[in-house]
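Researcher: I'm preparing a figure for a lab meeting and need a structural model of a single chain. I don't have an experimental structure, so a prediction will have to do for now. The sequence is pasted below. Please return the structure as C-alpha cells so I can convert it later.
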Amino acid sequence: MKQYPYWWEGNNSFFSEKIEVPSQVDVLIIGGGYTGLCAALATSELGANTLVIDKANPGEGASTRNGGMFGAHPRVSWDKVRNSYGESVADKIFEEAPVALTFVKDLIRKNKIKCDFNNSGRIQLAWTKDHFTDQKKMVENISTKSDTKVDILEKRDLCEHICTEKYFGGVHFSEHCSLNPKKFQDGLINLAISKGVKISSHTEATRIDRNNKKWTVFLNGGRSIITSKIIMATNGYIGNNFPWFFRRVFPIPSYIVVTEEISDDFMRNHLPSNKMMVETRAKHSYFRKSPDNKRIIFGGRASMVNINDEKAISRLKDTMIEIWPKVAEIPIAYSWSGNTGFTFNQLPHVGQINDIYYAMGFCGSGTVLAPYLGYKVGYQAMGSKRGATAYSLTKLKLSPLNLLSKPYFLNILDIWTRLKFDR
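Model: Understood. Here is the structure written out cell by cell.
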C-alpha cells in the first residue's frame, strides 16, 4: 500500500526552491497553498512586490491532500448563520456561494489550468429521515437566498447515482465539480511565477515584530525580512508560532483511502454515476470515482485527532463496507491524511488583526473558498474595493475550549462524536 496521496502518483514533484530571501518586500504571504498563491496573484496584479513563503513545500498540506471536490455552499444552515450574525449577513453569505464558485471556475478556464476539471455535480446524501427533512428546508433556503442550482432527490432517485439502501434521499448541487488538487496547485504556482511572484519553500516565519509602519519577520536559519504587509494563509497548518490564530482555527484531520482498480461491472453496480458524494452524518464520509473512473476515492473523519494509518484505514474500510458490503473484496491501494482548518462557528473569515491580514478557517470547503478568499484578502491588503466579501462580516470566534498550547478538546470531542453519533 502506498501511504501518500493518489494525486501525487506520477506527479510527486513539488516546487522546492529555497530562494535567497530579499531584505524587503511590499507584501509577505505566509502559506503557499491555494489561499496564499491566490492572495499573491491579487497583490501582484495591483503592483506589489510579493513573496510567498511556506515552512514545507508549497501545497504539500491540504491543497494537494483533499478529495478534489469543488463547491462553495456554506457548511452551516442559513438559520445558524442568522442566529450568529443576523439576517443580512446570512443572506450575503448564501448569495456569495455561486459567485465564489463561478470566480474559481473562471480562474481555471481563463488561465488554462489543466487539472482534470469536470462539471460532475455533487450529491449530499441523507443518512437519516430527519436529515432528509432538514435537507428540504436547506434547499428552500438556498433557492430563496442565492442563485445556486440545487434540487431534492428522493430515495428512489438515488439508484441512478449510487447503489445502496443506506440513504433516505439527497440534495443535488448540479454546478459543483471535481478536479485533481495536485494539478490545480501546480497550475496556481506556475501562474503566480509567471506574474512575478517570488516563492520560497522550507522558509518558516518564527516571529513577527512591528517597527513603526513596517514589520520585521524573523525566519528559520537566522534570516529576517522587512515588509509593509503580512497575509496569513496557513489554515489547518497554522502552528503555535502565532497563538492568536492557533486558538481560533484548529486542525481536524481528514483521512482518505483509494481502492485498487475496479472492474467496470463492479463500478456500474455500486457507483454508476460520476457525481461527487458527501454524507450528512457526523463522520462526514465523502467519496467519488477517480478521474479515470477505475477507483473509488473515499474519505472521512475517521478521527477528530491524529491516529495511525492502520486504524484510519480500518475505520474507513468499515464505513465503505457499511455502504457497499462487496467492497470488502477490494484491496486499498493508497492511504493518506491532511488537515482541515475549522473555526468554532464553522465559517471561514477574511480580515485583519493588528494590521496582519488573513483568510482561513475553510472548514472543509477550501477547494473553492481558499482561492476565492485568497484573492479577497489580497485585494483587502492592498486597499482595493474588490476585496469586499461577506466573509469579512463573520468573526474568528475564540472558545475557552482552546486556550492551551494544543487543541486538547478534540480528544474529548472525538470520543463523544463516535459514541453519540452515526450509530
